[in-house]
Amino acid sequence: MSSYPDDDGLVDQDDLPEGHRSGFVAVIGKPNVGKSTLMNALLREKLAIVSPRPQTTRDRQLGILTLPEAQVIFIDTPGIHIARTPLGEYMVEVAAEAIPDADVVLFLVDVSEPPDEADRQIAGLIARHEGAPVILVLNKIDLLDGQPEEARDARCAEFAALLPGAAPLRISATEGRGVEQLQAMILAALPEGPRYYPADQLTDTQLRENAAELIREQVLLRYGQEVPHAVAVQIEEFKERGDDMTYIRAIIFVEKDSQKAILIGKKGAALKELGQAARAELEDLLGTQVYLDLWVKVLKNWRRDPHALRRLGYHKKD
Ligand code: GDP
Ligand code: MG
Q1: Do 163 and 123 touch, CB atoms closer than 8 A?
Q2: Interatomic CA distance for residues 154 and 168, integer angstroms
Q3: What are the distances in angstroms from CA 226 to CA 221, 223, 230, 244?
Q4: Up-side HSE of residue 96: CA atoms within 13 Å toward CB?
Q5: Ligand 2 centroid vs 285 CA: distance in angstroms?
Q6: Is 288 near ligand 1, meaning CB less than 6 Å away?
């Protein structure tokens, strides 16, 4: 990013060492290659939603890694895919927008499968925005452990051929292999710059969104068959009460009365269980006790309704 915050702004720059680096890192790749898992490994916190289903990450997620010598702001993008609904179109735009904003681009691929058309298209998209250094992150290398070295090399070479200017690195985000080396490569590629955010801040306004994503993750884990993707979560209130308690009021929006009935269950039993599981995750994320006030509402066809999309926070950047 080109503009620095004002010197008299909120962020204290006093203790920064000479040569402090900072910048924005776009994490790009098709759905399910491990972008969220990698973010979590790099940030050592459960910030981005991880799910075996593709396309669960629908929004730009800022995760902030503050080290003594650098501050890295990650932009986790949704996978790039073909748009079929207004929400789908939004996802493609967001993914493409992250590239020109970035100081470093991580092009994430899944080496357990050969490159496909989607990988080629994304590589093309990145190549068009030349400028920022690109690291080709060859993820899920653990899945090739059983294969001969030549086979692994050949697979990695196929991906490297998509983007010859990129610096390749093999990693396993789930096992943590190569993650430290990746961090070192990112730091080396960042320009010198100030801290954009306070050191103790994991994200700017993202905690609320992360809380919403965690609740949504619980819904998908439990009811993925019954309510596929027809769920949005809005945080209505997010308040610290004392040092050790966070009060969260959240609404789960579904598209049909039948989905609402499933989520609530007999005498509210299903919703109670969902709330307990979500609360445990939220307490992990926030490091406080959580009082979770959970509601279910029907908002018909919200995925096709631009007003509903806006209301649920899917803003288009202009
Ligand atoms: P995203 O859609 O790109 O954000 O992908 P996720 O981070 O949600 O990961 C998709 C799936 O791939 C999850 O089931 C992860 O556990 C799995 N996964 C991610 N990284 C690795 C890896 O390095 N090795 C293996 N074996 N699985 C991984
Ligand atoms: Mg994701």
Answers
A1: yes
A2: 13
A3: 11, 5, 9, 36
A4: 14
A5: 17
A6: no
pLDDT at 16 over 60: yes
How many other C-beta atoms lie within 10 A of the C-beta of residue 16?
19
Question: Which position has the higher pLDDT, 233 or 187?
Answer: 187
Sign of dihedral through CA atoms 15, 25, 92, 59? Answer: negative
Q: Which residue has the higher pLDDT, 92 or 247?
A: 247
* Confidence (pTM): 0.62
- The three-class DSSP label of residue 85 is coil
Q: Output 284 or 154, whichever has higher pLDDT.
A: 154
Q: Name residues whose C-beta falls within 8 Å of residue 210's C-beta, 6 or more positions apart in sequence.
A: 47, 48, 61, 203, 285
186 CB contacts (<8 Å, ≥6 apart)? 25, 72, 104, 106, 135
CA pair distance 285, 212, nearest whole angstrom: 12
Q: How far apart are the first and last CA of the chain?
A: 17
Name which residue sits closest to atom 10 of ligand 1, judged by CA: 32
At position 224, the amino acid (one-letter code) is G
Tell how far the Cα of 123 is from the centroid of ligand 2, in angstroms.
18
Distances (CA, A) of 164 to 41, 100, 133, 302: 26, 19, 12, 42
